[in-house]
């Protein structure tokens, strides 16, 4: 079964422009083309795009995804021992994010239990401080 770029975009949650861009930068393989030059996608392509979406949600850069996507096509981590440290480090970052978010949830729960009366003196502390981006002042 094949899919148009529009159908693929709907199934993956990616825009058509994003799919084209990912092909252009080599993150995705070039799509097959019909005689009329329209792109054609297969279930395997859609699965790869879902992996990209998943990894992107974890904060992984597009460049870091490329070797992992190659692995997902080949399917054997043992043949790509150089990726093991990359995946382990990324997993560690995700676990730290989860821990920080859980601390925030615990803080909010404490605030809700205190009934917003200021009775809860628990502080919101994070394992890793959140970096603030510079604010642009509007005039």
TrEMBL record:
Membrane-traversing stretches: none
HTH merR-type domain boundaries: 2-71
SMART domains in alphabetical order: HTH_MERR
Domain of life according to the entry: Bacteria
Entry-linked SUPFAM superfamilies: Putative DNA-binding domain
Pfam family, one: MerR_1
Keyword entries, A-Z: DNA-binding
Protein name according to UniProt: MerR family transcriptional regulator
């Amino acid at each position: 079964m094949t899919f148009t770029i529009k159908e693929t975009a709907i199934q993956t949650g990616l825009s058509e422009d994003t799919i084209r861009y990912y092909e252009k930068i080599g993150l995705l393989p070039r799509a097959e083309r019909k005689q009329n030059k329209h792109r054609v996608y297969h279930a395997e392509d859609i699965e790869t795009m879902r992996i990209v979406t998943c990894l992107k949600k974890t904060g992984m850069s597009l460049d870091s995804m490329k070797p992992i996507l190659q692995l997902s096509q080949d399917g054997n981590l043992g043949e790509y021992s150089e990726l093991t440290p990359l995946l382990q480090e990324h997993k560690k970052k995700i676990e730290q994010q989860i821990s920080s978010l859980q601390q925030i949830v615990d803080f909010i729960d404490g605030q809700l239990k205190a009934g917003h009366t200021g009775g809860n003196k628990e502080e919101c502390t994070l394992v890793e401080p959140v970096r603030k981006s510079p604010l642009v002042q509007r005039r």
